Amino acid sequence: MAGIFVPIVIGIALLAMVVWLICGATFEFAMTIAVSVLVVSCPCALGLATPTAIMVGTGRGASNGILIKSAEALETAHSVNVVVMDKTGTITKGNFVVQNIVPAKGVPLNEGELLWLAAKCESASTHPIARSILTAYEERGAEHGNSTVENIRELAGEGVIASVEGKTVLCGNVKLMEHSNIDLSGYHGTQGSTEVLLALDGRFLGHIDIADTVKPDAKQAIGRMKAQGLRTAMLTGDGQASADAVAQSIGIDEVHARLLPQDKLAALNEIREKNGAVMFVGDGINDAPVLAGADVGAAMGSGADAAIEAADVVFMKADLSSVPASVNIARSANIVSKENIIFALAVKLLVMVLGLTNHASMWLAVFADTGVAMLCVLNSVRILYKKFD
After folding, report:
1. What is the pTM of this model?
2. Is 86 one of the annotated active-site residues of the chain?
């Protein structure tokens, strides 16, 4: 802006001086007019208009537990059209609990034996679902000998393959079973729960129902997002039925289920092509590429270090109410920035015209420069006293 603004202003000042000299004014008078124009047009207020709004907005976010890493993130957040969220740990608490153990018909295993097999298979995994199975096994105190577990392979977004007592055990979701050509004709899912399916040497054994708890503020936060005109979407590796049940309970508009970690970024890009700028909210290590690829990436402060590092915004409260609050702060900062620019330009233009016609004193010119700059700063400070909760 300076490359255009400065030459034009200097040209106007010189032209005004020449015109007044031609009209018979003294050199001192003509020079006073030119200096008044230069003082009025000094771009201090324009230089402060946006940075002060962004700085105050960033500080206001920090006081609300919203850490905004850059001015660009705050400026982009005001234009977001869609909020896309991961499910586990973001919408839900991530505290999985085993609800039911369901052996398949004709399988010579009881619930305890099925749980033992799942615990053995998941013994090396750190995934929250795996930890819930191990916790349930430990609480039941069931013992089935010290069987050896070998060749454990964890497949991202699918589950675990391991060798227990020389037999191949599959422990994961439907995708894992389908990719391993397991016959699931005897499988009947449970609506609204996350399910871990088990197979032994190519035979389906049954499934374990695991429930996660939706965060208490989720429904209200989604309602606030919709009131802001935002569309909401959820990405998850869980089954379609489980994902739909969670989305329906809190009012999410769009659901993409059974996604592998590498599929999430493609789903995000698809949503962006349809709706415009996207904010992605996640917390897991698998969410890091999606956080980096979103227009605005927001990570829960309780999440993985990789997610926090990749994000543009970090929510220290780790609840969804921070999402509409951050958008509200960004929109307020944008409005204040525009107010500052319009006010500064309007006052400067008015005083410049008055100065060119000798109807404005040097003191009024100084006000149009320094005074307007201070008013822009004070207008930005209003953000500190606005309620965003």
Report:
1. 0.75
2. yes
